[in-house]
Specification:
The protein is α/β, with parallel strands linked by helices. It contains 9 helices and 14 strands. The structure holds 4'-deoxy-4'-aminopyridoxal-5'-phosphate.
Length: about 350
């Protein structure tokens, strides 16, 4: 089989080792004579998977004492609602920064549960930068941020130092770099970009934010209940959690999140250098906010975009079409993408430009 480089934004590229472990576990799990897909989630073998998955999250991110790690369901989208539902009182205010459609969806859900102050928005600029010039009201319950805006190719290079706790959607850059978890009351991330497959959502929450009793909650939407049950209140998405564990084991074997950061910076630098040097292509996001996960670019001659995409597919470069709201191209270069994939893309861009020189 020829190698295809997967630049898809999500579900996305996975480490080969994780996919091999997943394939083996589908056929037989740990010498049980049974598949991981058919065993009880209450079995000792599966319980260990959840325990190990939570432990490796803590280890890789250096999660301090006083935080709980959980694997939930409903995608990052459910967290847009679940976070304010659990944390924000009816008369309290939460601060949000609108940096893209995912942030906007988080804002929409939070408005169902309390007061929402949108401190800044880059919507008028089609979200091509991240606003940083804002003041967080001292009384805000939390400041909600989206660390990486998957569609627009913008990423917070550092988290602001503010007096209130941060709540952050890290769906598209979790485990791509070290983070100081102590700044956050809550971190959430859908697994299907940088830490596994669709079906589970990682939640890291301050323990004193559990069971605040702000309102009556359905059981499945109550963080405390899931925390008390060790992510096993109901049948968990067993295979998705297993794939997260295997993906994170690969991250650890590769040197952890600091090593991921180095690789991701190197890959992004190589691709941005080509975008900036190549007369046919140009980047779409503000230089200082450029994402190291989703690299967005368009063509100076848009009429050539279809042809480039076609050549890319033929050359084994898959998933490069940009999101419809930005157009052009988006190269998602999550942890599992090697420098060789980026180099293959750079080579094609260079070659294409030579052949289409004016
Ligand atoms: N937040 C971000 C930053 C995303 O990129 C996405 C998915 N593309 C979501 C939230 C929504 O995630 P889910 O599909 O898991 O609900």
């Amino acid at each position: 089989m020829n190698k295809v480089y997967n630049f898809s934004a999500g579900p996305a590229i996975l480490p080969r080792e994780a996919m091999e472990a997943g394939s083996r576990a589908c056929l037989e799990f740990q010498g049980m004579g049974l598949s991981l897909l058919e065993i009880s989630h209450r079995s000792t073998e599966y319980q260990q998977v959840v325990t190990d998955a939570c432990a490796i999250v803590k280890e890789l991110l250096g999660v301090p004492d006083g935080y709980t790690v959980m694997f939930l369901q409903g995608g990052a989208s459910l967290q847009f609602a679940m976070a304010p539902m659990n944390i924000l009182g009816d008369t309290e205010t939460a601060a949000y920064v609108d940096t893209g459609v995912w942030a906007a969806k988080a804002i929409k859900e939070a408005r169902l549960f309390g007061n929402v102050e949108v401190l800044a928005s880059s919507k008028d600029a089609n979200y091509n930068f991240i606003p940083k010039d804002y003041t967080v009201p001292a009384a805000a319950r939390y400041l909600h941020l989206t660390s990486n805006n998957t569609i627009y190719g913008t990423q917070l290079q550092s988290f602001p130092s503010v007096a209130v706790p941060l709540v952050c959607d890290m769906s598209s850059d979790i485990f791509s770099r070290p983070v100081d978890v102590s700044k956050f009351g809550l971190i959430y991330a859908g697994a299907q970009k940088n830490m596994g497959i669709a079906g589970t959502t990682l939640v890291i929450i301050r323990e004193d934010w559990l069971g605040l009793g702000k309102r009556k909650l359905p059981s499945m939407l109550d963080y405390k209940l899931h925390a008390d049950a060790g992510s096993m209140y109901n049948t968990p998405p067993a295979f998705a959690v297993y794939m997260a564990l295997e993906t994170l084991k690969w991250v650890k074997a590769e040197g952890g999140v600091a090593a991921m950061q180095k690789r991701n910076e190197e890959k992004a630098a190589a691709l941005y250098a080509e975008i900036d040097a190549n007369p046919l292509f140009k980047g779409t996001s503000a230089l200082e906010d450029r994402s190291r996960m989703n690299i967005t670019f368009v063509m100076e001659k848009p009429e050539l975009e279809k042809e480039f995409l076609k050549e890319a597919e033929t050359a084994g470069l898959s998933g490069l079409k940009g999101h419809r709201s930005v157009g052009g191209f988006r190269a998602s270069i999550y942890n599992a993408m090697g420098l060789d994939g980026v180099q293959a893309l750079v080579t094609l861009m260079r070659d294409f430009a030579t052949r289409h020189a004016a």
